[in-house]
Design a protein that fits this description.
heterodimer; A: 2 helices; about 50% helix; elongated; B: 6 helices
Chain lengths: ~120, ~260
């Protein structure tokens, strides 16, 4: 009796099984990796200390500089006229010409003579 | 019309003084330029004569010497006029001093006119040399008189400012008395006034030194004009400091 041809069918089935096993293994590895990643992330997140919210430093508003009340003499006619007189005087004292180059003595030759011929 | 009367009067009264000074200054500069030109010509002619010893060169040298000596006299004459005008222009110079200087000026002009006659009459180099020497012998007197006038002008100008400062101090003192009477403590400003017066004391020392330099007791002593200017500059520095104190006082009173 001649053998039927089961061999190719069997081979095909074996190949399909191999593919399935490989796919199952790959999916398993992927799942395990994903699980490990999720677990690790959860553990890390659990161990992490909570970050305190950043609050801007408090800057105190500067207190208003006390402005002294104006002197009662700020508008006094006598004081104002004195102030003006002193300012004018100061200008005169600063600008006085104590050299008067216009009236500097002339530079004259005081040895004008010619010895006569002997 | 009445509004403009003071302005009109100011121009009528003030302008001639300025114009007189400017005229005198222009004349002085003109005479001085003639003198410088005459001196240059004299030096060239003298050098030519001393080199060649010719009669022509001698005559030329004699003419140039005569012109130089004449123009030198003219410079001094115009310089007296210049100083007189400056004295007239300077506020605060006493009328007595103006008159005194005017008399001095007239006396020197008489001397110069007599001297001019001698220069013109000199027919030889010996006579011309003698006339030139007369001026040189008389020059110390010119020098003292003119420098004394310069000193008077400068001293008066500085003294005017001191008087103005004194008047300001008097007004300020009166104001401080008024403030004190109103119950305000004025001790800070009083101390400022004392400091001001101390500076004025130092001013007076320097001013006196300047005055001694310009107006020495010994009338024969030559006047060192630059030393006097130096002392006056120092005095002015103290006056400036005194005025700065016054400015500080009035500033603190008003603010």
């Amino acid at each position: 009796m001649l053998p039927t041809q089961p061999v190719p069918v069997m081979q095909e089935m074996n190949q399909q099984r191999k593919v399935l096993v490989i796919a199952a293994v790959a999916v398993s590895i992927l799942l395990i990796t994903t699980l490990i990643a999720i677990t690790t992330t959860v553990i890390v997140l659990r161990n992490q200390k909570p970050i305190a919210p950043v609050t801007p430093p408090e800057v105190a508003t500067p207190a208003a500089i006390p402005v002294p009340p104006p002197s009662r003499f700020a508008t006094d006619a006598g004081v104002l006229s004195l102030r003006e007189a002193i300012a004018t005087l100061s200008g005169k004292v600063d600008s006085i010409d104590l050299f008067e180059t216009d009236i500097t003595p002339p530079n004259l030759d005081l040895n004008l003579n010619i010895a006569p011929q002997r | 019309m009445r509004k403009f009367l003071p302005i009109l009067l100011f121009f009528l009264l003030a302008t001639p003084v300025q114009a007189d000074f400017q005229t005198a200054r222009n004349d002085y500069i003109y005479q001085y330029n003639l003198y410088r030109q005459a001196i240059d010509n004299y030096q060239v002619a003298k050098s030519t004569f001393l080199t060649y010893r010719t009669l022509t060169a001698q005559q030329d040298a004699q003419d140039k010497l005569r012109t130089a000596v004449q123009t030198r006299d003219n410079v001094i004459g115009s310089y007296y006029n210049l100083l007189q005008e400056r004295l007239n222009q300077t506020t605060g110079v006493s009328p007595q001093y103006r008159n005194t200087f005017n008399s001095i000026k007239e006396s020197e002009k008489t001397w110069l006119s007599q001297h001019r006659v001698k220069i013109e009459a000199a027919a030889s180099l010996e006579d011309l040399n003698a006339a030139a020497k007369e001026f040189e012998d008389h020059y110390p007197q010119f020098d003292r008189e003119t420098k004394r006038a310069i000193g008077t002008i400068l001293l008066t100008k500085e003294d005017n400012l001191k008087k103005e400062t004194d008047r300001t101090i008097d007004t300020l003192t009166a104001k401080l008395t008024e403030i004190r009477q109103s119950g305000i403590d004025t001790s800070f400003w009083d101390r400022g006034l004392i400091n001001t017066k101390n500076k004025l004391g130092l001013y007076t020392q320097k001013y006196t030194e300047a005055k001694d330099t310009y107006q020495p007791g010994n009338t024969e002593e030559p006047i060192n004009i630059y030393a006097g200017q130096q002392r006056l500059t120092e005095a002015n520095q103290y006056l400036r400091e005194a005025v700065r104190f016054l400015q500080e006082i009035i500033k603190t009173i008003a603010t």
